[in-house]
Amino acid sequence: MLTLLSMFYYICLRRRSRSGTRGEALTSRRAVESGQRATLPISVEVEQYAKEVLDFSSHYGSENSMSYTMWNLAGMPNVYPSSGDFTQTAVFRAYGAWWEQCASTPLPFRRTPKAFHSQDYIELAFEEPVYPTAVEVLETYHPGAIVQIMACSLNPFSQNPPTDVRWEVLWAEEPTKVLTPQARQFSPSIKQLSFPTNLIRVEVNSSLLKYYTELDAVALRGQKERPILSRYKMPRIDICDLSDSDEELSDPGASFRQAGDGKHINLGNGYFDKLPYELIQLIVSHLTLPDLCRLTQTCKLLRQHCCDPLQYIQLSLQPYWARLSDTSLGHLQGRCTLLQRLNLSWTGNRGALTLTGFSSFMKACGGSLVCLELSCCHFLSEPCLEVISQTCPGLQELNLSSCDRLHPQAFTHISKLTRLRRLVLYRTRIEQTAMLRILTFCIELRHLNLGSCVMIEDYDVVASMLAVCCRSLRSLDLWRCRSLSERGLAELAAGCRLLEELDLGWCSTLQSSSGCFQHLARNLQCLRKLFLTANRTVCDSDIEELAANCPALQHLDILGTRMVNSSSLRKLLQACPKLLLLDVSFCAQVDARIVQELCGLFPNVAIKKSFTQ
């Protein structure tokens, strides 16, 4: 309203100057030019740091601490402009391409758009909604992971949230490899929005990084008043636009007309419909999901191919999380009768998916499912898991990573999925009783992730049950499981001898003096990955035992030990020719000179040595 009144006042002054004398006109013009800044409302740029961390996909830190957690991104900078490894920063769980080379990593989904690079995310709330002019991310160690910045129309502090929640991309780019690990202020050029926002989402891809990226703070700059240049309607492409109305479809044979002599004349489709059915199926299989859905609206021939259930044996909806709704699933439901692998990770939050929509889709399409990815799906509830257990009898892979709002009782339904081979429960609230019930019935488990499951009271009991019931286990993640003792580890090593990957990072109750790590090396000779992160007691004897018994070792993390020197590391590198990663960060007796020497002798091994300035 103020803007309109100011413009009206300006027009009146100009008309007066045109109708008056030359002197009056000059006087009026000077008055307008000199007073324009005071007359037109000045939209002052607001700078604010994140007030609250709303959601994130993973972090390096503990659920009961602040060190290396995403919660460090709330508030003013703690570290910047300093560079290095600091506990006051936010650190994601993984980095580098080697993480995806592990046996526990699931196969990638087909039809993932080439423009979708995101692996992790964090959502931040700011105090005041503004029209963004800049987003500044303070990266303090190994920058370059950020691939996308988004803004949401929802005010997370509002008591009356809108029914239509919109997400818009402010900036997006492919992963980049920054040559220096030094701190930087990352502020890409962002596009203007047609709505104010105080909810920002930062998505990252750390696959090109040499070490963990660390973020210190995120600042949002913007104006409270809507800029003139942004006052246009933003074009939107919605995955919900999947209708197949027959009225919009043309006749596939309309391009052919009979001439007077009875011969068919090609009018421009290049005899496409004469191609073998299987060849057309192969062609359309290379399309992304939105393109496939758009193609259904061109003609009946292509609609038949694009709606063929064989095109939907694998379906990844994660790249379209911002647009996915019950309506979207409803449109896809008829095409997914042969669905085997489904990725709904990151989808459905803030009411986008409901129990009704999810249940309807699973009942119609879940009968053949063998893989279901539900990472960070906060719409999930106990009835949702009950539906999964009832409709997916052949399910072999289930990922509930960071579904930290699920009630502990909900996890008991997983025990009905007796064919499970891979189960990811990272950062969930599963309790010990439910976990033991799952292990009792799901004896075919090959891969189990219990990282940061803080509500399990006694991991020794869980380890004992694994040793008895899951002898075919190949990978086990016990990251930050603080109640595991030498007794539980010994039983695990004796019962699960096929283990190839074992993560015992930050399991501080394990002591090398008990001989538990040496016993582990003697029993698990198939080990390819072993994380003993932040265990200060790991010593030369443990490393030498690994060198003697685990020739297939590829990844070893002994960050933080004070009792390992270069001689035992040299033996390990010589005895394990397949070793790809060795993290000796903060190892007191392994300085930068030794690391440089070992890198020269073993160039195929990525030897990590973190620092703090």
TrEMBL record:
<feature type="domain" description="F-box">
    <location>
        <begin position="269"/>
        <end position="324"/>
    </location>
</feature>
<dbReference type="Pfam" id="PF12937">
    <property type="entry name" value="F-box-like"/>
</dbReference>
<dbReference type="InterPro" id="IPR032675">
    <property type="entry name" value="LRR_dom_sf"/>
</dbReference>
<dbReference type="InterPro" id="IPR036047">
    <property type="entry name" value="F-box-like_dom_sf"/>
</dbReference>
<keyword id="KW-0433">Leucine-rich repeat</keyword>
<protein>
    <recommendedName>
        <fullName>F-box domain-containing protein</fullName>
    </recommendedName>
</protein>
<dbReference type="InterPro" id="IPR001810">
    <property type="entry name" value="F-box_dom"/>
</dbReference>
<dbReference type="GO" id="GO:0031146">
    <property type="term" value="P:SCF-dependent proteasomal ubiquitin-dependent protein catabolic process"/>
</dbReference>
<keyword id="KW-0833">Ubl conjugation pathway</keyword>
<dbReference type="GO" id="GO:0019005">
    <property type="term" value="C:SCF ubiquitin ligase complex"/>
</dbReference>
<dbReference type="InterPro" id="IPR006553">
    <property type="entry name" value="Leu-rich_rpt_Cys-con_subtyp"/>
</dbReference>
